[in-house]
TrEMBL record:
UniProt region (Disordered), positions on chain: 1-26
Highest taxon, organism lineage: Bacteria
The protein's name: Zinc-binding dehydrogenase
InterPro entries named among the record's database cross-references: ADH-like_C, ADH-like_N, ER, GroES-like_sf, NAD(P)-bd_dom_sf, Zinc_ADH-like
Pfam families, alphabetized: ADH_N, ADH_zinc_N
Gene3D superfamilies noted in UniProt: Medium-chain alcohol dehydrogenases, catalytic domain, NAD(P)-binding Rossmann-like Domain
Enoyl reductase (ER) domain boundaries: 13-320
Originating species: Fodinibacter luteus
Ranges of biased composition (kind: Polar residues): 1-13
Amino acid sequence: MLAVTCTSQSATDPLSGLEVGERPEPVAPDGWTTVRLRTAALNHHDVWSLRGVGLPADRLPMVLGCDGAGIDDEGREVVVHAVVASPDWAGDETLDPRRSLLSEVHDGTLAEVVTVPRRNVVAKPAGLSWEHAACLPTAWLTAYRMLFTNAGVQPGGTVLVQGAAGGVATALVQLGAAAGLRMWVTSRDEARGEQAVALGADRAFEAGARMPERVDAVMETVGAATWSHSVNSLRPGGTIVISGATSGDAPAKAELTKIYFKQLRVVGSTMGTRTELERLTRFVVDAGVEPLVDSVLPLTRAREGFERMVAGTVSGKVVFTV
Ligand SMILES: NC(=O)c1ccc[n+]([C@@H]2O[C@H](COP(=O)([O-])OP(=O)(O)OC[C@H]3O[C@@H](n4cnc5c(N)ncnc54)[C@H](OP(=O)(O)O)[C@@H]3O)[C@@H](O)[C@H]2O)c1
């Protein structure tokens, strides 16, 4: 089968270990299902794997990809849930200390076929296109849990999203706006900020700008570059939800004094549960939310999508058709 594989890793030249070519088709073990993918999508996670972060070298070669949608072995249209919990785990899969994401232990979705545990698929609603379905399992699910499970905000509340154009950032803006939250974004680029406003953000600010008023919650995926700004932008008692650190995880100042003096809550957030993925798929259809798609490429041209993500020029999701 055709697949996008990580064959070696380099912190400085991640694309050197990317291979688009033939791989043996996987065979589903007992209790697993085979999904013939129709669409898949790219995440920063795939670039981290190529850089050697989160994927030990002794597991290579590894088929990349966490996002995918296709037809399972019973002929159903499904969206793949990328969080693989231990077989005996019950409850919130993201809290299983032995969980992994597809492409960390088991081959991922940037392929013609992926095998996953039977509980790792949810029904694709008829009203959800294949392209939009592939956007949901990682960046969008992460955004859903950040906003609706972990932020503690209510309709009318103000939420600041650090970064405007990324997969998680655009999902946060579109989901928050659809749920009646006042969404503000920062961006290093004016045009990307304006695009966020077109997607439903109330206002866009340049990176590091002082907010006109303190916000109820900050959604953080940028990390070191924006950490102090996130702490300074919150109202007393507000919440930072952090799910990533694209610019590094060692900020110049940890801001410990401000965190305890303003009684801020700092909440870590990772992916989401199968139940949250089901609710997300229902919500986007019912609310008429269409995930922002940067580009749609055949899987054979996957390298072009990776190049755009490494260059930092992606707006929304890069989708691959299989
Ligand atoms: N914990 C989880 O479960 C989980 C799930 C998904 C993603 N993540 C993590 O979240 C992060 C974002 O993922 P993604 O897929 O949305 O990636 P992406 O599409 O590459 O997003 C990059 C985003 O970072 C923003 N950014 C702002 N300042 C930056 C800086 N100094 N350097 C680099 N980027 C900067 C960009 O905003 P502007 O260009 O508008 O300035 C853009 O919104 C990644 O680190 C990823 O690993 C974690």
